[in-house]
Amino acid sequence: MFYNTLIDLCNERGKKITPLLLELKLGTGSISRWRKGVIPNGETLMILSGYFGVSVDFLLFGKNPDYDFSPEEKELLKYFNLLSEPNKIKVIERAKTLYEEHNA
Asked: Which label site among 20, 21, 56, 67 has the fewest CB atoms less than 10 Å from its CB?
């Protein structure tokens, strides 16, 4: 299911899977395993989820849960998931600070 969903998402956006994975700095060696039904690791799922603006549930099962992300949330997730772990922490801390400054 995952592989078919990934291919469908790539086709919808006019992307080929190998160049996309290279663009996202993901290895391409897993493609054949995914084709056989192997599920990627969590980090890979999060990067792809952010890139395509879909939930991990959608990637794995071809459906979204009862919620959908707004366009702004999708864009934020796309870039957030491409960051290193230290930079993700910085983004979270900055968002918390902004919230506290404007809701004090």
From this structure: 67
pLDDT digits (tens, 9 = 90+) for 5-62: 999 999 998 999 999 999 999 988 889 999 999 999 999 999 999 899 888 888 998 8
Domain ranges (residues) in the chain: 1-104
> How far is the C-alpha of 51 from the C-alpha of 59, rounded, in Å?
11
In this predicted structure, what is the pLDDT of residue 90? 93
pTM value is 0.61
Please give, one letter per residue, the 3-state secondary structure of the chain: CHHHHHHHHHHHCCCCHHHHHHHCCCCCCCHHHHHCCCCCCHHHHHHHHHHHCCCHHHHHHCCCCCCCCCHHHHHHHHHHCCCCHHHHHHHHHHHHHHHHHHCC
Q: Which residues contact 59 (CB under 8 A, 6 or more apart)?
A: 2, 5, 6, 45, 48, 49, 52
